[in-house]
Specification:
This protein has about 220 residues and is an all-alpha fold. Helix content is about 75%, strand content about 0%. It has 10 helices and no strands. Helix 2 runs antiparallel to helix 3, helix 2 packs antiparallel against helix 10 and helix 5 packs antiparallel against helix 10. The longest helix is centred in the C-terminal third of the chain and has 32 residues.
């Protein structure tokens, strides 16, 4: 493995990148706001699982394809952007997003959770896999901290370092889920909460999709 100095620099740089506000954190927070804490946890888990696709791609050199074939990068990026926008519009226009019943028996957030408790997980896996910017990040970031003279081959070093990055980024997503849930907990007594949070969460997802689609890199 790389030297202690290289590993220390790697951990510091990873922590800085992980806790900078980014699309994954906003996505996890939006799912929490719109669908509740359980969906937030599953969204964070889905992002984490999807991240391993990019770790594997970096370790095997597959991410180089995005640099070698710009049209492939653009196609995946636009597909991911369209999927995010579609998810956001579904939240904003969902029929279930009516006001909560006056007796408070079943909230709209609860209805969303019952409709498909693992839906947020699979959607998040798809969103993460369809984000080529993540693949490019791993490809650009990880090789800086490998050591050709180490006992482990480069691909193994990339896999280990990528796993550490993915775990640390997921820890930041978890923090966002917790904070988003605490903020929305104080608003759940409002009769219009279900409708408002779906529009807010859906708006965030649409904004992320538009940003991804219009980004040049």
């Amino acid at each position: 493995m790389p030297s202690i100095e290289i590993l220390t620099a790697f951990l510091v740089a990873t922590a800085v990148f992980a806790y900078m506000p980014g699309p994954a954190m906003l996505y996890a927070a939006a799912q929490t706001i719109a669908r509740g804490k359980r969906s937030g946890w599953l969204a964070a888990l889905g992002i984490h699982v999807g991240g391993y696709v990019h770790v594997l791609a970096a370790a095997l050199g597959l991410a180089v394809l995005f640099e070698a074939v710009p049209s492939l990068y653009t196609a995946i990026k636009l597909l991911g952007a369209a999927y995010l926008i579609w998810l956001g519009l579904r939240l904003m226009l969902a029929k279930e997003a009516a006001d909560a019943p006056a007796d408070g028996s079943v909230s709209s957030v609860a209805l969303a959770g019952r409709a498909g408790p693992w839906r947020a997980f699979w959607q998040s896996v798809t969103v993460e896999v369809l984000n080529p910017k993540t693949a490019i990040f791993y490809l650009a970031f990880l090789p800086q901290f490998t050591d050709p003279a180490a006992s482990l081959p480069i691909w193994a070093q990339l896999a280990i370092l990528g796993t550490v990055v993915n775990i640390m980024f997921s820890s930041a997503d978890v923090v966002c889920v917790v904070l988003a849930d605490r903020v929305t907990a104080t608003l759940r007594r409002s009769a219009s909460f279900g409708r408002w949070v779906r529009r807010a969460g859906g708006g965030v997802l649409v904004g992320l999709g538009v940003n991804l689609g219009l980004s040049r890199a």
